[in-house]
Design brief:
Radius of gyration of chain A: 26 Å
Keywords (chains A, B): DNA-binding, Transcription, Transcription regulation
Strand content of chain A: 5-15%
Pfam families (chains A, B): LacI, Peripla_BP_3
Oligomer: homodimer
Strand order of the largest sheet of chain A: 2-1-3-4-5-11
Order of helices and strands of chain A: HHHHEHEHEHEEHEHEHEHEEHEE
Number of domains of chain A: 3
Protein name (chains A, B): LacI family transcriptional regulator
Organism (chains A, B): Flavobacterium okayamense
CATH class of the largest domain in chain A: Alpha Beta
Distance between the termini of chain A: 72 Å
Largest interface: A-B, 52 and 52 residues
CATH topology of the largest domain in chain A: Rossmann fold
Helix content of chain A: 40-55%
Domain HTH lacI-type (chains A, B): 4-58
């Protein structure tokens, strides 16, 4: 209803439509005076270049899609932050969808984004997801795709990840070097690759230091919540009174563990040492301060967009692109929860 | 490059383009058999209906824009959650941008969204923002607009807010009824309406209970961070040793206050009572558990989208719409940090 065509501007100013169009695009062969007149009138008439028409011509939407399991999670919101900052610098908008860890929803969302003709897609897979048809469809259509954090090794596309196995190994090694001899692991759900890799890293560290692996010391989370941390801490200490170390899948759950130990006055780090994963900012705020593995979430977002941008540029120029995997560095951060007494 | 036209499908199946188009749109006058053949072939050929062309016809993009100060903030990520859940239910996608509290960035982002021809915009204003030209431009173009949380009273559009003044009054009243006689206020920045209203609520409560207002007891945050909470707690207790209550603009900052008091062993609630604002889930996890004002963030997102949807529907049907303000309920939640000893 507020749409004004180039034609109207041309009529009012008594110049050709071509000149109006050139003026709006800042072509050098239009005089400054004419440009100013066109721009002023365009502003007065609330003229917007018809971006859909532009899209039809350039075949670019300058929009990318992002599908993540949940927005309300410090790790993911920090990745989002990195992605939209970097996208904006490069003139791209980001459509954000959350799968709520549901494969059905994730499939629907991929469809939506493909119908919207986004120029590329960045995803962190839901716990139920694997190399399913919806992912194959993205690749079959030649839409650039980057996976981060929760990936599937079966999918041949670019990825931005950390070495979860190595990071977990180092976390458990840290507990062992602090004197822990019986270490429990609160792990993530069964399906996602990063939960599997962290579990494997835990197992490898035990093996490396000749500590027998005991499957009853492994507690899988269903929803990865604070409350699960509290209830597993209770189970661990009631079933295995001599556990002296716990490696927890993520800081939020580890904070639940600490909250329970606080309540029942089990001393951390004296009786049990606890290490988390992700370096959530709250982990240095609670008492005792939580040792953890630093996972560069904002950087993960920035790199994911850059990798997608690289692939989109290759596609535009019709030059070949081979998917790459970027591995970001992690490090163990020692705080009070694993200090030697 | 993977684009296939209706023409190709029509050619292969030996039917008319109109029939193909009708089959894809599930018209009743096309046989089930033909529909199946068309859909199967469309899938095989990775056919996508050209959404830009569709957009040109319907003048709807089925996309809305959301501009918020920051994604990595539990309150905002919870509102986002509510908005995208509700938008998806109604077939809308959400483009999310963050202003990082910068007016310049916010203006650029409004421009981007208008050029993208979104059907509507939801915003929470940056601290520097007011009724500036970019907001006027949205309204002048007739694009439905809803503001939430950080609004400006000068802007005539729909809003979803809480009664910050009343909520703050109740928080401070809670401290007074628990016996506090000298109450400090760590407030938000000078500009945003919600910080102003919470400050006015604080003042009114003091007045109502005949406690003299002392401007030196008011500490304005610049960035509303955990660290500001720590440093203001130190300042307050060093400058006013007899302060026995603190009302803090938001839980994150209040958690900083508690962290400092823990460090220097000032007893909460015995020596000083502390109440926050927002009911961040961490506030019931820390020791002592933080009393706070519950702010329904997810609900705020849901209602914001619903209000926008209502306005978009009126626009589509060309029926008049009068902007409305929805006021959501808040309540004081008493936890350990304000308990009577």
């Amino acid at each position: 209803m507020n749409d004004v065509t180039l034609k109207k501007i041309a009529e009012i100013l008594g110049i050709s439509i071509t000149t109006v169009s050139k003026a709006l695009k800042n072509y050098p062969d239009v005089s400054k005076k004419t440009k100013k007149a066109v721009l002023d009138l365009a502003e007065e008439l609330h003229y917007t270049p018809n971006s859909f028409a532009v899209n039809l011509r350039t075949k670019e939407s300058k929009t990318i899609g992002l599908i993540i399991p949940e927005v309300v999670h410090h790790f993911f919101s920090s990745v989002i932050n990195g992605i939209i900052d970097e996208a904006e610098k490069n003139g791209y908008l980001v459509i954000i969808l959350q799968s709520n860890e549901s494969l059905a929803l994730e499939k629907k969302q991929v469809d939506l984004l493909l119908n919207k003709r986004v120029d590329g897609i960045i995803m962190s897979l839901s716990n139920q997801s694997n190399f399913d048809n919806h992912i194959k469809e993205i690749i079959a259509r030649g839409i650039p795709l980057v996976l981060f954090d929760k990936i599937s090794k079966l999918i041949n596309c670019s990825k931005v990840i950390i070495d979860d196995q190595k990071a977990a190994f180092e976390a458990v090694e840290h507990l062992i070097l602090k004197g822990c001899k019986k270490i429990a692991h609160i792990r993530g759900p069964i399906n996602p690759q990063n939960a599997i890799d962290r579990f494997l890293g835990y197992k490898k560290a035990l093996e490396h230091y000749n500590i027998p692996f005991d499957p009853t010391l492994v507690y899988p989370c269903l929803h990865v919540t604070f409350d699960e941390g509290k209830s597993f801490a209770k189970q661990i200490i009631e079933t295995h009174k001599d556990v002296d170390g716990i490696f927890v899948i993520t800081d939020l759950v580890a904070v639940g563990v600490l909250a329970y130990f606080n309540e029942v006055q089990i001393k951390v780090p004296q009786q049990v040492k606890v290490i988390g994963f992700s370096n959530w900012f709250m982990s240095q705020v609670i008492a005792p301060k939580l040792s953890t593995v630093d996972q560069p979430s904002h950087e993960m977002g920035v790199q994911s967009f850059q990798l997608l941008f690289e692939e989109m540029s290759h596609k535009k120029n019709e030059t070949p692109f081979t998917p790459r995997t970027i591995l970001l560095e992690t490090s163990v951060i020692e705080r009070e929860s694993t200090k030697k007494p």
